[in-house]
Amino acid sequence: QAPKKAKKKIEGGSNVFSMFEQTQIQEFKEAFTIMDQNRDGFIDKADLRDTFAALGRLNVKNEELEEMVKEAPGPINFTVFLTMFGEKLKGTDPEETILNAFKIFDPEGKGRIKADYIKEMLMTQADRFSQEEINQMFAAFPPDVSGNLDYKNLCYVITHGEEKD
């Protein structure tokens, strides 16, 4: 029989780990690990700058990074990271959460992302998609004539199901 992992209860409050499903916690852990570029167990300004650079955004202002770090009550370890997401996601619907994830790749807020770009990101970052998974996604959501993916429609269908005519 495997030993039980001890769960620390936060005095007076609820345990942040109980807010999420185990699979979600694993996904947050993967995101945290990707962002913790220097692998010291904390996300700091340098890690954020490197993460933005990896996403193709090179000229992030220092003030912008400081604002992000200041949102945390202290050094950002995984528990703090999870707590911050818990607070941000409280009351948001799944569609909004998914839309916000896509907006990272759409800083102008056009509602569309170049299909080639999203394909490259999905195949090279985090839980890498296979060519088969990419084919399935584009079969369900074909890019438009300009080669853009309408992610607002994609998010709607993910959270509400197919539209009925």
TrEMBL record:
Q: Is the keyword Iron assigned to this protein? A: no
Pfam families to which the protein is assigned, alphabetical: EF-hand_6
User: Which keywords does this chain's UniProt record carry?
Assistant: Calcium, Metal-binding, Repeat
SUPFAM superfamilies, per this entry? EF-hand (SSF47473)
Matches recorded under InterPro entries: EF-hand-dom_pair, EF_Hand_1_Ca_BS, EF_hand_dom, Myosin_RLC
User: What region holds the EF-hand domain?
Assistant: 23-58, 93-128
Q: Does the keyword Repeat apply?
A: yes
Q: Which GO terms describe its molecular function?
A: calcium ion binding
Q: Where are the transmembrane segments?
A: none
List, alphabetically, the PANTHER family matched. Answer: MYOSIN REGULATORY LIGHT CHAIN 2 (PTHR23049)
Task: Outline the subunit composition.
Answer: Myosin is a hexamer of 2 heavy chains and 4 light chains.
Question: What name goes with this protein?
Answer: MLRB protein
What is the scientific name of the source organism? Platysteira castanea
